[in-house]
Amino acid sequence: MEAKRSQYALSGQEKEYNVRAGGSSVADYLEFVGAECQTMVIHMKDGSTLSVPRTLIKGLATASPEQSAKWAINGLGTGLWWPELEVQLWVPALQKGIY
């Protein structure tokens, strides 16, 4: 079974700002992979990635793959937002294991 993917890329202006701002806590894009999209993978601007099982994240644990796919990056790459689920996550917190 091929992994399902959902992603949103930053605009050119946002990427330019992130390059000037620096730091590894800046998300470039996000995808859900694996059977039933159970793993959230955040690709950082610096080339690193962060993988977290969706079931560990409050607000996403019981969300369907379709609901999980409706997201956006905000805060110029430091925040992740699921408006339909009313879930907001801060990328630096996720990097520290705070789900």
Characterise this structure.
Strand 5 and strand 6 (87-90) form a beta hairpin. The protein has helices at residues 12-21, 65-68, 91-95; strands at 27-33, 39-44, 49-53, 72-74, 79-82, 87-90. Helix content is 19%, strand content 29%. The radius of gyration is 13 Å and the shape is globular. The strands form 2 sheets. The protein has a 3-stranded antiparallel beta sheet. Strands 4-5-6 form a 3-stranded antiparallel beta sheet. The termini are far apart. The chain has one domain (12-95): NE0471 N-terminal domain-like. With 99 residues, the chain is of the alpha+beta class.
Summarize the structure.
By secondary structure, the protein is an alpha+beta fold. It has helices at residues 12-21, 65-68, 91-95; strands spanning 27-33, 39-44, 49-53, 72-74, 79-82, 87-90.
The largest pleated sheet is described as:
3 strands, antiparallel
CATH class wording: Alpha Beta
Determine the number of helices (DSSP H or I, runs of at least 4 residues): 3
Write the CATH fold name.
Answer: NE0471 N-terminal domain-like
What sequence of helices (H) and strands (E) makes up the elements? HEEEHEEEH
**Structural class assignment:** alpha+beta
End-to-end Cα distance: 28 Å
CATH superfamily: Uncharacterised protein PF10387, DUF2442
Low-confidence stretches: 1-23
Number of domains: 1
Strand content: 25-35%
**Shape descriptor:** globular
Provide the residue-averaged pLDDT. Answer: 76
Helix content: 10-25%
CATH architecture: 2-Layer Sandwich
Tell me the number of strands.
6
Task: Determine Rg (CA atoms, Å).
Answer: 13 Å
**Spatial order of the strands in the main sheet?**
1-2-3
